[in-house]
Amino acid sequence: MQSFFGSISIGYLPKGRVLGISKLARLVEVFARRLQIQEKLVAQIADSLMETLQPYGVMVVCKAKHMCISSRGIEKHNAVMVTSAIRGAFKKMEVRNEFLEMIK
Questions:
Q1: What strands, in cross-sheet order, belong to the sheet with 57-66?
Q2: Is 28 exposed, middle or buried (0-12, 13-18, 19+ CB in 10 A)?
């Protein structure tokens, strides 16, 4: 097992309740500290926000470098894996594209 390092971008369209940025960071930390794979990480964050806040939609994007790629095997040091979890209103292409433009 090897670790991965990167950044997570979270977008949500509130339906009443709004979270502070520090709460989003804590939520990411809760799931990231577990033995984890990147695909499950973004899904757990998105599902947790959907369940707790019940927003119109949530999108979570993770861009990460995996140590298993850079330290062994093909040894690609600049390889980045991008995964996303899309829920609710973010399934509409125009909403999704607006968020993706913001995080470029």
A1: 4-13, 57-66, 81-88
A2: buried
The pTM (predicted TM-score) of the whole model is: 0.88
User: What residues have CB less than 8 Å from 64, skipping those under 6 apart?
Assistant: 4, 5, 6, 7, 38, 80, 81
Residues 53-87 have pLDDT tens digits of: 999 999 999 988 877 665 665 666 677 889 999 99
Helix 38-53 × helix 21-32 angle, to 10°: 140
Residue 61, token pair as written in the block: 């994007």
* Contact between residue 70 and residue 34 where contact means Cβ atoms under 8 Å apart: no
Antiparallel, parallel or unpaired: β 57-66 and 4-13 = antiparallel
